[in-house]
Amino acid sequence: MICLIDGPVATDHRDLAGTKIRDIQGKNKTGCSYLDSLACLHGTYVAGILSARRGSVAPAICPGCTLMVRPIFTECTGSKCTMPTATAEELASAINDAIAAGANVINVSAALGQSSPQSERRVQDALDYASRAGVLVVAASGNQGAVGSSPVTRHPWVIAVIGCDLQGRPTAESNMGRSIGTRGLAAPAENITSLGPGDKPLTSSGTSAAAPFVTGTIALLWSEFRGVGAARIRQAVTQSENRSRRSIAPPVLDAWTAREALAQR
């Protein structure tokens, strides 16, 4: 099961019809109140990449997978609204809720607002809990074009994802760094078309688009290799056993190689 920690999702979208969507209730509703809110646009877009129906405009990587939605973005409409962010406390609570609800893999395409050492500690504790519980966490690296890491992407259990173009080259806006290069992956992030609320597709770019390619691949592989543990899935997808990484830019996701590695276990 995938848990999407993001904005609310337009669950009545025709290309999500038939998708197994479960609510994980937080302070924000799972469904969208305002179809034009940035939070709804973002959540629905990422949900489409993960599990829209086959034949839709979205990548629809794992359409048969159960999608649990735990919104952390608050909806806002109007010209003064900016790209939604969440606090570290909200993210930590959402991770804990996802684990308690039975998630196998968590997708985080979220920017954190200002945080304190105490709130960052809560995020670390939640990620430690995910590691102990065998719940994989995939997180977008961010789009500031910076070198460094965040409380999420520096955690050793997290698979941080940067964006790449069609030639596999890192996009200029992707955040990179030693921990991201060592344990992360790159995935498509330029002009990715997925679902928008209503009938109009949405095309966007950035690491928020890249992360669900990795999350969806993990979910799809896990649906085929059901008896495999989280550490082995993670190892196969990141190919960490086959390379010693020194670059701040991680390798590109290779789903077929990961499948072959799991098939040879």
Key features of this structure:
single chain; 265 residues; alpha/beta; Rossmann fold; 7-stranded parallel sheet; two-stranded antiparallel ribbon; 32% helix; 15% strand; globular
How many distinct folded domains? 1
Sequence of secondary-structure elements: EEHEHEHEEHEEEHHH
The tally of helices reads: 7
How big a fraction of the residues is strand?
A: 5-15%
Q: What is the SS-derived class? A: alpha/beta
Helix content: 25-40%
- Average of the residue pLDDT scores: 89
- Using only CA atoms, what is the Rg? 17 Å
CATH class: Alpha Beta
The description of the largest β-sheet is: 7 strands, parallel
The number of distinct β-strands equals: 9
Given the C-alpha coordinates, what overall shape results? globular
Annotated CATH architecture? 3-Layer(aba) Sandwich
Q: What topology, given as strand order, has the largest sheet?
A: 2-3-1-4-5-6-7
End-to-end separation in angstroms reads 22 Å
What is the CATH topology assignment?
A: Rossmann fold
- Relevant CATH superfamily: Peptidase S8/S53 domain
Query: Which residues form runs of ≥5 with pLDDT under 50?
Result: none
